[in-house]
Amino acid sequence: MTVFDPTTKQEEVFNTAVLSLISGLFKGYNATVLAYGQTGSGKSFSMGGTYKRAQEKEPTVGVIPRVHESAGIAATIDAMTSGNSTSLEAEAEGNASDTSRSPASGSRVV
């Protein structure tokens, strides 16, 4: 578990606490990123950041858009090198218990 102070940049949060989890996804491991804290402490901002600016590479882009981009790049590389098919699913602010079923086809759900 890592606790970040209020001055920590979004990129540092992602690189420190999340980036290493992405490679594990492609090895068959599950990963969860949880933001916990009191109301107004910045949980939603840390996870989402400024969604409308996500494509502009703004420093305020949060964890979820960064995971989406990084996992997409990793999935493309994995498909090119191994021929595997990858499906990316994400759920925020909800119950994800029924979204991570392994398909019978042999494809990986990330």
TrEMBL record:
GO BP: microtubule-based movement; mitotic spindle organization; spindle elongation; system development
GO molecular function, one term: microtubule motor activity
Keyword flag Oxidoreductase: no
Residues that coordinate or bind ATP: G37, Q38, T39, G40, S41, G42, K43, S44
InterPro entries: Kinesin-like_fam, Kinesin_motor_dom, Kinesin_motor_dom_sf, P-loop_NTPase
Domain Kinesin motor, chain residue ranges per copy: 1-110
PANTHER family found in the cross-reference section: CHROMOSOME-ASSOCIATED KINESIN KIF4A-RELATED
Protein name: Kinesin motor domain-containing protein
Organism lineage: Eukaryota, Metazoa, Chordata, Craniata, Vertebrata
